[in-house]
UniProtKB/TrEMBL annotation:
<dbReference type="Pfam" id="PF02709">
    <property type="entry name" value="Glyco_transf_7C"/>
</dbReference>
<dbReference type="InterPro" id="IPR027791">
    <property type="entry name" value="Galactosyl_T_C"/>
</dbReference>
<protein>
    <submittedName>
        <fullName>Glycosyl transferase family 2</fullName>
    </submittedName>
</protein>
<dbReference type="InterPro" id="IPR001173">
    <property type="entry name" value="Glyco_trans_2-like"/>
</dbReference>
<dbReference type="InterPro" id="IPR050834">
    <property type="entry name" value="Glycosyltransf_2"/>
</dbReference>
<feature type="domain" description="Glycosyltransferase 2-like">
    <location>
        <begin position="5"/>
        <end position="124"/>
    </location>
</feature>
<dbReference type="GO" id="GO:0016740">
    <property type="term" value="F:transferase activity"/>
</dbReference>
<keyword id="KW-0808">Transferase</keyword>
<dbReference type="InterPro" id="IPR029044">
    <property type="entry name" value="Nucleotide-diphossugar_trans"/>
</dbReference>
<dbReference type="Pfam" id="PF00535">
    <property type="entry name" value="Glycos_transf_2"/>
</dbReference>
<feature type="domain" description="Galactosyltransferase C-terminal">
    <location>
        <begin position="171"/>
        <end position="217"/>
    </location>
</feature>
Length: 269
């Protein structure tokens, strides 16, 4: 068994994905595997991916049609042979000790770890230059310098101190997170009834927490979100549908419902 499996679902974001893989080159050895789940990618993207020259051979899962975030990640979990499954989005450049810190964070207990997301925005030509450079230390320093933490980060840290696992379960996210594979399997992984954008990771965190897994933050595990245009109206609509489904699943847990409603209103007001 390997120490860790990194699961990266992707859909037609090769200019970003290849930077994520470059950043992982120095972190992947015989104890770590990378699983890329191509979720409805175009033939052109699949062809261009084959041309990439990487320092390791990623495992590839190809879904010809888009199956969605939950099913894509589940297929990665089922393929994984690592004790720890690390979830990484295809537009988040991991820090230099990303993998080792995730693995070490699981010592001495049953945990689900959530790292820190910093946002950074560049035009495509800058991303191209980073890739041609090989993502050098100088590039990393620039990315770190140009990035900013998620909004309201100080307030979030205070809220976590006050509300503990209640808020940790409701704010669990999978763009930079990890859990033991056996714990993911035990709670039946992601619920594939969540479709479109949002809440499938919240639901997973809630179920992991209720099963006895402690949700922990490790703010030293940073990845850099390469901000890109999104359809906010579509995201909001999909999120609301998934939110109502999630509330139905946790019916009876009044404290979690109140917290979820408060956070949803705060974010999508």
């Amino acid at each position: 068994m390997k120490k860790a499996s990194i699961v990266i679902p992707t859909m037609n974001k090769l200019s970003r994905l290849r930077l994520i893989l470059k950043a992982l080159e120095s972190q992947v050895d015989d104890t770590v595997e990378v699983i890329i789940v191509f979720d409805g990618c175009s033939d052109e993207v699949l062809c261009d991916f084959k041309k990439l020259k990487l320092g390791f051979e990623p495992i590839q899962i190809i879904h010809p049609e888009n199956v969605g975030r939950s099913k894509a990640r589940n297929s990665g979990i089922l393929k994984a042979s690592g004790e720890i499954v690390i979830f990484l989005d295809d537009d988040r450049i991991p820090c230099s000790d990303f993998v080792s810190k995730h693995v070490m964070s699981h010592k001495n207990g049953r945990f689900a770890i959530v790292g820190q997301r910093n946002n950074v925005e560049y035009p495509e030509e800058v991303l191209e230059q980073f890739y041609l450079n090989g993502l050098t230390e100088s590039d990393f320093r620039r990315i770190d310098r140009d990035s900013i933490p998620e909004p309201y980060e100080p307030a979030k840290k205070i809220a976590r101190l006050i509300f503990g696992q209640l808020i940790e379960r409701i704010t669990f996210s999978t763009g930079n997170s990890s859990a033991r594979r056996e714990d993911l399997i035990a709670v039946n992984m992601f619920d594939e009834n969540f479709t479109g954008w949002g809440l499938e990771d919240t639901d997973l965190g809630y179920r992991l927490g209720k099963s006895g897994v402690k949700i922990k933050r490790n703010f030293s595990i940073v990845n850099f979100h390469l901000v890109h245009p999104v359809n906010k109206s579509q995201q909001s609509s999909e999120n609301q549908k998934n939110f109502e489904y999630f509330l139905g699943k946790i019916e009876g847990d009044k404290a979690s419902i109140r917290m979820a409603k408060f956070l949803n209103k705060l974010i999508y007001r």
